[in-house]
Design goal:
The protein is α/β, with parallel strands linked by helices. It has helices at about 20-30, 45-55, 75-85, 130-155, 180-200, 220-225, 225-235, 245-255, and strands at about 10-15, 35-40, 60-65, 90, 160-165, 205-210, 265-270. Helix 1 (about 20-30) packs across helix 8 and helix 4 (about 130-155) runs parallel beside helix 5 (about 180-200). The two termini are about 35 Å apart. Belongs to the short-chain dehydrogenases/reductases (SDR) family.
Length: about 270
């Protein structure tokens, strides 16, 4: 291990790795020397990620899979372990977002009355059970599946890092994203519970709670003048985050110098939750 490659010899599994923050984390971990196993339902995005990392001199593999159901999990686990031998770092990043109210809201949208952030959909249409389940299954069930697949080896070796990606919304609230906030709240509590359970075995578990970063999920908000004004008004630093900043935090939490940090939710939000 060197100062410039603190994760040399380590292997990381990153879910939702093909784009957005998952991609930024994957690139950062690879740049720090880790072998990255990218997981996503989108094979094309994963192949693009692996090509980008390899072009920069790193090592990466693409593992298309749907982590929400059990059908793909045994195949995914066996394929990853056959390729890399063991996993040292697990980043639970996969997520989705449905902007709908739990029940229809009596909003007169024709008059300009709005609910939610700029670009939110109509508040008069309630979220379906299928949409609710989709969000909870992706964030919570998917994370649990990956934990069960890759953490037993960490416990046996008495060394490992689990990083769960939540959201700064766990410390505040936002309209029309109740399912997302419930899912991220569950992730932060999962972090605390598992950190306590695994602390004696050398496996740390922490949450990164990002604020506003430009991703495919939030691009419409970032691209509109109304959205830009809304964001700058909310964030004391008057800017949104650079994904490389989040990647650097993930690298630190994955390394040896973070071995005494566990059970924590670390906000990276420009002061929005202050």
């Amino acid at each position: 291990m060197t100062d410039t490659h603190p994760l040399l010899g380590r292997t990381a599994v990153v879910s939702g790795a093909g784009r957005g923050l998952g991609r930024a984390i994957s690139v950062a971990l690879a740049g720090a020397g880790a072998v990255v196993c990218g997981v996503s339902r989108n094979a094309e995005e994963l192949e693009s990620l692996a090509a980008e990392i390899k072009a920069a001199g790193g090592q990466a593999y693409a593992f298309p899979a749907d982590i929400r159901g059990s059908a793909d999990l045994d195949r995914l686990r066996d394929a990853v372990l056959a390729e890399v031998g063991g996993v040292d770092i697990l980043v639970n990043n996969a997520g989705n977002l449905v902007k709908r109210p739990v029940v229809p809201l009596p909003v007169d949208e024709a008059s300009g009355e709005k609910v939610g952030q700029p670009g939110s959909g109509p508040a008069s249409v309630a979220m379906s059970d299928e949409e609710w389940d989709s969000v909870l299954d992706t964030h919570v069930r998917g994370s649990l599946h990956l934990v069960r697949s890759f953490v037993p080896g960490m416990l046996e070796r008495r060394r490992g890092r689990v990083i769960n990606i939540a959201s700064s919304s766990v410390a505040r609230s936002a309209s029309l994203t109740v399912s997302y906030q419930v899912a991220k709240g569950a992730i932060t509590q999962l972090t605390r519970a598992l950190a306590k359970e695994w602390a004696a075995f050398g496996v740390t578990v922490n949450t990164i709670a990002p604020g506003h970063f430009r991703t495919s999920m939030t691009q419409a908000l970032h691209d509109s003048p109304e959205g830009q004004a809304w964001l700058k008004e909310r964030i004391p630093m008057r800017r949104t985050g650079d994904p490389r900043e989040l990647g650097a935090l993930a690298v630190h939490l994955s390394g040896d110098l973070a071995s005494f940090i566990t059970g924590q939710t670390i906000f990276i939000d420009g002061g929005e939750t202050l």
